[in-house]
Fold:
Amino acid sequence: MNFDFIAFFITILSAIYFIIPAYIANLSALTFGGTTPVDFGKTFFDGRRVIGDGVTWKGLIYGTITGTLVGTIGGVLTGDPVYGLIVGFLLSFGALLGDAVGSFIKRRLGVDKGKPFPILDQLDFIAGALILVSIYTTISWDAIIIIAVLTVIIHLISNIVAYTIGLKDVWYWMFEYSNI
Structure:
């Protein structure tokens, strides 16, 4: 049995192309977010914030719109703008829901906003995006694995770059966690 490098490479490119609206939504929510938190500052029955200040209505709206636009453009480029619109919306909104769920889990475990949490920080938005988009389209296990692995690698590289150019005060990733 021979390994088909070309087919594998095409699968990688297809997976990246497919998930880009989720990445853009997540980045846009961070970039354009702020103002009113989605949880309106409320606390859960455990006395901790439901989600926290990091997930805002402005970020949710702008992130969803931006990711949906990217998905729609992708659909136009591939000849199916309706598919692009629907998939772009589901990936974008799902990514931001996944991020909110990740924040909810972190608050329940006593992890403060901005504090790292291995794997959850890297994959919560991807899990949300893939779960929500799966109600509309099928995603191969190969693509899911590729997306997850690439997301962890991209997260690592972006942390290194952000620290190196002074956008982050501390470099962290995976195994440097103190309050988990």
The chain has a mean pLDDT of 90.
